[in-house]
Amino acid sequence: MEDLKLHGFWFSPFTMRVVWTLKLKGIAYENIEEDRVNKSPELLEYNPVYKKAPVLVHSGKPICESMIIVEYIDEIWPHYSLVPRDPYERAQARFWVNYADQMVPALFAALYFKCGAGEEKENPTEKIWEHLKVIEDQCLSDKRKFFGGDTINIVDIAFGSLFKVLYTIEDVNEVKVIETEKFPLLHSWFNNFKNVTVIKENFPDREKMSATIKSIIEKALASS
């Protein structure tokens, strides 16, 4: 087995990205589950700038930031390629990965919205719908199975992790976000994605994840 360790949180969408990538490629690694409150000295040493997970440690060398890790893995272990080889297709994929990351603030705002913070502000779900509409219209209008066509690529990994958060928002806030009638192509894509065997086997339990995230939010609001 390669000297490969992953520091992360099981419920983190960013850790999910790395786990899915490693599992899709069949790469063995040591999983080190971090404590969100009391992070290990190793994690803080490996990521002294942001002090966040996930961090992949390959032969003693740390790589930080989820999608940077995904691309690193894809370059070191090129089988089951996730990053398009064509320069134009690769540029397009990176554009949409960046767009996925730009959605993150709206997702976290929505998680906190109905839990005691921001009730007098504009509902962030509207902003999420704007993002989803763009993805529906610009990425999936040709009704492809995955963003990568017939196989998963880095865009599926990026958006797939965020859709897990969207379902958590639905559970925590008791509101429907991913409406099939509004986003039929995204709904079809996500069903295809989550039913890929490797993804399904490494998908966090919905109830457990929702309960964990709700507890984290409530503790954060109580201490603020």
Automatic annotation (TrEMBL):
GO BP term (any one): toxin catabolic process
Record domain GST N-terminal: where: 2-81
Keywords: Detoxification, Oxidoreductase, Transferase
Signal peptide: none
Reactions catalysed: RX + glutathione = an S-substituted glutathione + a halide anion + H(+); methylarsonate + 2 glutathione + H(+) = methylarsonous acid + glutathione disulfide + H2O; L-dehydroascorbate + 2 glutathione = glutathione disulfide + L-ascorbate
Record-annotated membrane-spanning stretches: none
UniProt xrefs under InterPro entries: Glutathione-S-Trfase_C-like, Glutathione-S-Trfase_C_sf, Glutathione_S-Trfase, Glutathione_S-Trfase_N, GST_C, GST_C_Tau, GST_omega, Omega/Tau-like
Pfam family, one: GST_C
Highest taxon, organism lineage: Eukaryota
Domain GST C-terminal: 86-212
GO cellular component: cytoplasm
Gene3D superfamilies with a match to the protein in the record: 1.20.1050.10, Glutaredoxin
An annotated Gene Ontology molecular function: glutathione transferase activity
EC number of the protein: 1.20.4.2, 1.8.5.1, 2.5.1.18
Family of the protein in this entry: Belongs to the GST superfamily. Tau family.
Protein name, entry field: Glutathione-dependent dehydroascorbate reductase
Taxonomic source organism: Arachis hypogaea
High-level lineage: Eukaryota, Viridiplantae, Streptophyta, Embryophyta, Tracheophyta
